[in-house]
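yo

u said u wanted the structure for the complex thing, so here. seqs first:
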Amino acid sequence: QVQLVQSGAEVKKPGASVKVSCQASGYSFTTYYMHWVRQAPGQGLEWVGVINPSGGTTSYAQKFQGRVTMTTDKSTSTVYMELSSLRSEDTAVYYCARKQVGQPFDYWGQGTLVTVSS
Amino acid sequence: EIVLTQSPGTLSLSPGERATLSCRASQSVSSSYLAWYQQKPGQAPRLLIYGVSSRATGIPDRFSGSGSGTDFTLTISRLEPEDFAVYYCQQYGSSPLTFGGGTKVEIK
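structre next:
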């Protein structure tokens, strides 16, 4: 069965960086794009960006440009999202979700809580 | 960027009642790439409807989607206790992908 398993919760200080992982299983890893979506406490869903695990190409939401980096490791079917220059407003649950072109998000990771606090 | 506006913000209903949720887009959603997700506290969103009106695998037929262009609706024909949750619409036809602000369906 399809599974997206994310790394555990993180607590970071303002200005630091965080790297969250998402390991996929149960399907052909390179045939789905992997997206990242975040949700601040009590708030809605916000798209962060996407990576194509096959070639490594990325596209990021404008507000995260310059601060986010998504990478992939095909040997372990894992994608990573690194967010730098953290501020308190980045406190959120970060989800990975797989998607094909023209299709919605059909499977999501369990979420990773990133807390930014001094 | 396509802005999605959901209404109402909160819907207070009783089990067995019909729920009608609205999602309005700031511009036409290309190729009917409009989806609805359900989210319960502490859980990831779950896909309910895609392509405006197609139910995802395993979704009961009391959930239905309709609409076109800029106006879309999610209808739950008879609310079951497990349906009380937050619902989000999403357009996935153009970048950046965007979500509506959500509608909370709560028990009256």
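Chain B touches chain A through 21 residues (CB under 8 Å). The longest strand of chain B covers residues 19-25.
cya
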